[in-house]
Write a structure and sequence with these properties.
CATH architecture of the largest domain: 3-Layer(aba) Sandwich
Distance between the termini: 68 Å
Radius of gyration: 23 Å
Number of domains: 2
Number of strands: 22
Number of helices: 15
Structural class: alpha/beta
Shape: globular
Strand content: 15-25%
CATH class of the largest domain: Alpha Beta
């Protein structure tokens, strides 16, 4: 079965989705298709008044539906019905995901859409299972701790995995009893809009999910700084996360969850299964053309395996063949925009000028669209731009070490601490290294999350604050209240 489609035949939802309907507004922002660089359409850019309208719709939906106070199992049933409809509409969602993003339609159809539905179901089940606690007080008192939703949660999602990132934000917030005002990336808004439509078709109250289109400086700032948005969740760059923190600090105090950038190491020790390590490393860099916050872009290998591993990676990198996201079977993904591709190339060229050796790649593919060759840079130091900066593209650096301590020192980046991969057959070494790594997630003899969603994800240092996924993500969408009663 092929999932290929003709992009000219796709009908695109367009407009702010507020209170259960599309709100028309002047189209100000251009959306391009990275697969061939053409202008797809224009979308509106929400301002403060648009965000006010969305927040008011969310507050009205909470008040009139009683979403926060209904029997928790009612929320569970509604969210499961939504997940069912997401799966039933997988073809449409995959096409809307692929048309303007870096996600190949077949991968979106088989992977991203199903993952999103699973996330919704996962968080739904917390609604009637997580509860407060009775406190051990004296016999003439009753003390307990209750958990209550914030009310209106603001969410901002990135362009690299639009629909599944929306699931990260919407699932726990709704299951916990909140309404949501969400801004998708202005480059990839369409699958998120359709996701909101499906929620209401599944029976969720109108206005519980509101989608405001726009950019970060105007629309995103209006959301994060809005006084009636009680909590913010954001996935994106460290620079944007810093701007959000500043905006929140200037407009008031509120909790935030920030999943930000990374420069994640993949450490290959001398006793590693080399074939498995090479396969995992390639799959940690190449999917989505490296446009993944958890991409394992710093390869650290014991000197005894360096030549053999480099040869395997060059072979894997050189085998990638680009293809449009609407083709199937999938090829190597495009870079999201021509501007981002220029940025990737500028860092690569600066790294080479600073002494890096380019083992393969190092330039754009010669074809229409924004495609950059998978690139492997060796001979780099910790001061090289490719080691210091998050590139967010298919570029990896290659460094060697002689001892475990040297590997750990190279792995612990001074700025980032999102995740890491460790390859060894020595369990004791794996535990020691895992404990020493300054990062929010460590994978051993694998690279990437499982699909059961129970393990939280989130970074240390400049890679973020708080956790997405897992029980922690649900609890992050509620606040606790302590109650003490004299009997």
């Amino acid at each position: 079965m092929t999932f290929a489609f003709d992009p000219s035949t796709i009908s695109l939802p367009n407009g702010h989705y507020i209170g259960g309907r599309y709100v028309d507004a002047p189209k100000e922002l251009a959306v391009h298709t990275p697969s061939d660089g053409r202008l797809l359409t224009d979308i509106p850019c929400g301002d403060q008044e648009t965000v006010n309208q969305a927040v008011n719709a969310a507050k009205t939906a909470l008040r009139e539906s009683g979403w926060a106070t209904v029997t928790p199992r009612e929320r569970v049933k509604a969210l499961h019905a939504w997940a069912d409809l997401i799966e039933a509409e997988a073809n449409t969602l995959a096409q809307l995901e692929a048309i303007c993003s870096s996600r190949p339609v077949g991968q979106a159809r088989v992977g991203d859409v199903g993952i999103t539905a699973t996330q919704i179901r996962f968080f739904a089940e917390f609604a009637d299972k997580e509860c407060g606690a009775l406190a051990p007080t004296s016999g003439d008192q009753l003390g307990f701790i209750s958990h209550e939703p914030y009310g209106v949660v603001g969410a901002i999602t990135p362009w690299n995995y639009p629909i599944s990132m929306a699931g990260w934000k919407l699932g726990p917030a709704l299951a916990a009893g909140n309404a949501v005002v969400l801004k998708p990336s202005e480059m990839t808004p369409f699958s998120t809009l359709y996701l909101a439509e499906l929620a209401e078709r599944a029976g969720l109250p109108k206005g519980l999910i509101n989608i405001v289109l726009g950019n970060g400086p105007e629309t995103g700032a209006a959301i994060t700084g809005h006084p009636d948005i009680a909590k913010v969740s954001f996935t994106g760059s460290t620079r944007a996360g810093s701007a959000i923190m500043e905006n929140i600090a200037q407009s008031g105090i509120k909790p935030m969850t920030l999943e930000l950038g990374g420069k994640s190491p993949q450490i290959v020790f001398a006793d590693a299964d080399l074939d498995k390590a090479a396969d995992c490393i390639a799959r940690g860099i190449l999917p989505n053309a490296g446009q993944t916050c958890v991409a394992g872009t710093r390869v650290l290998v014991h000197h005894s395996l360096a030549d053999a591993l480099a040869a395997k990676l060059v072979t894997a990198f050189d085998a990638q063949k680009p293809a449009a996201t609407w083709d199937d079977p999938a090829g190597f993904s495009p870079i999201i925009s021509a501007g981002q591709m220029r940025r990737i190339d500028s860092i690569v060229q600066a790294s080479i000028a600073a002494g890096a050796d380019c083992l393969t790649g190092g330039q754009a593919f010669e074809r229409p669209g924004s495609y950059y060759q998978p690139t492997l840079l060796s001979g780099v130091t910790e001061e090289n731009p490719a080691v210091k900066e998050e590139i967010f593209g298919p570029v990896a650096t290659f460094q060697t070490f002689d001892s475990d301590d040297e590997a750990i020192a190279l792995a612990n980046h001074p700025t980032y601490g999102l995740c890491a991969g460790v390859y060894t057959q020595d369990l004791s070494r794996a535990v020691r290294v895992t404990r020493a790594l300054e990062t929010g997630t460590v994978w051993v003899n694998r690279y990437g999350r499982s699909y059961d969603h129970i393990l939280p994800t989130g970074g240390w240092k400049s890679s973020g604050i708080g956790k997405d996924l897992g029980r922690e993500a649900f609890l992050a969408n509620q606040r606790s209240k302590s109650v003490l009663i004299d009997l």
